[in-house]
Amino acid sequence: MKVAEFIEVLAQNKNKELLFSYAQDKLVGANYHLTEVKNVQFDTTDCGGKTNFWEETHFQLWESPSELGKRNYMTTDKILSILTRVNSIKALKTDTEVKMEYGNEAFTTSVMPVKHIEIDGKRVYVSLFSEATRCKANDVCGLSAVDRDAESPIFEEQKPKIKHSSSQAMSLCEPNSGCC
Questions:
Q1: What is the span of the domain harbouring residue 168?
Q2: Cα(109)–Cα(87) distance, rounded to whole angstroms?
Q3: For 53, which of 30, 68, 135, 162 is 20 to 30 Å away at the CA?
Q4: From CA 111, how far away is CA 106, in angstroms rounded?
């Protein structure tokens, strides 16, 4: 979901409580705050030698220990006012993917994209999901799709050698060749 789409959902649902689900049946506590908005740039090179560049916007959610037991969640209006203030200082990149950065004592800090949003009369529910790591050069290194049930990569045993050229180097990769 793009930042602009997320903001539009908030704007269309004025003064509703905003809840975030970070795992099955797990909600970020009502004591959360939006503590930081990050314009993030990724400039990477994968194991196959291909360069990649993209941008994302991360909203950092933090649970205040001094507000444990709080029952009312932050409202869409409050989040919009924070984003308006941030935008007046440093422009939001509204065409980038929005992801939430969150962690607590029982959940390792993760950066999670929005899976879906549900709305009722009083609340906006934002479901997040964890993304698994993956090989971006799987076509070069001979890796096939990830077996999501086992959560482990499936290697094609008889994959032929593949020549891959980039502006920097020519490499020869095959499964178990060490290119990944």
A1: 138-173
A2: 25
A3: 162
A4: 15
* Domain contains 178: no
Same domain for 32 and 116, yes or no, is yes
Verify that 25 and 76 share a domain, yes or no. Answer: yes
Strands (E), the chain: 17-23, 26-27, 32-45, 51-63, 97-104, 107-119, 123-128, 143-147, 152-155, 162-165, 170-173
pLDDT tens, 32-73? 999 999 999 999 999 889 999 999 999 999 999 999 999 999
Same domain membership, residue 74 and residue 48: yes
Domains: count for the chain: 2
Distance separating the N- and C-terminal Cα atoms of the chain: 30
